[in-house]
Amino acid sequence: MKRRNFIKKTLFATGALSVASAGDLSSATGFAAGETALSGETSSTKPGNAVADLNGSSENKSPLLKSIMWGTVGLEGSVLEKCKAIKAAGFDGIEPSSHMDRNEVTDAMKATGLKASSVCNSKHWESLMSHPEAKVRREGIKHMIVAMEDAQAYGTDAVLLVPGRVDENTAYEDCWNYSTECIRELVPLAEKMQVKICIENVWNNFLLSPVEMRTYINQFDSRYVCSYFDCGNILVYGWPEHWIATLGNQIGRIHIKEFSRKIADKQGRWAGFNVQLTEGDVRWKEVMTEIKRNYNGGWLTTEQGGSSTLAELKDLSSRLDKILALY
Predict the structure, then answer these.
(1) Within 13 A of 172's CA, how many CA atoms are on the CB side?
(2) Strand, coil or helix: 159
(3) Residues 226-241 pLDDT 10s
(4) For 199-241, what is the HEC assignment?
């Protein structure tokens, strides 16, 4: 039950999960901590899969730094205690959630030497910028301003934002127009603060191709509106290396996350996340090739469920090292 609740909490916090889809989680939470969920024949044994490419050195010789999304850290304890464990596991930074206690976060980073890679807007789902009601969209703008202020306070220049969601109450065109209006209002502040508004690709039925994402970003004509690209979310309807190639230098930050199409096909879409990093269907060699060609955001941030013990944090850090070794 604890594992099930944590997966649900993590998916809400990170933006992969829309409220309308929460009911689909029942088939996705049978993966217990420490299980591989990949017994028998798996897609990981296919030629060209990431596992075959990740058997070499795990030394990180890339210029990229390692971070972890705060909402995915299941370790019990204070902010400082969690930061100490994250540092001990080998990470360089954290992606704090917005609306945390700034002094507590700042003090913990200072004490451990961790840096903030970015900030995740923790309020975007509850106050969508695509909501039909103007007062809700206004709240979304206010929450984003707090997230941007958090980023500035932590010394980072990027905030993750889910701009909206297409559903039975919000048409695609309305989602586009409402969210565009809100972000346009935020652009002058973003430019003044030098904090990037990074639009994440999530399962929100919106911006379903890299060309759409690029067009959406281009309309703002500002380098302070860019993409927060998630490698795992995209596997339902694309390949991350293709998106990275198309978006190019419009990518402000990147989430490193795994997904198994085979598990999703058998157990339901959400179950696809129940796989350890490097053991799913993301082609990390191809992804890192495109990252090397196109990305200058400086950080790779893990967004994997679990990490409830120091050993699990160290394992995740080691798996990320193997991906970074492909740079």
Answers:
(1) 6
(2) strand
(3) 999 999 999 999 999 9
(4) EECCCCCCCCCHHHHHHHHHCCCCCCEEEEEECCHHHHCCCHH
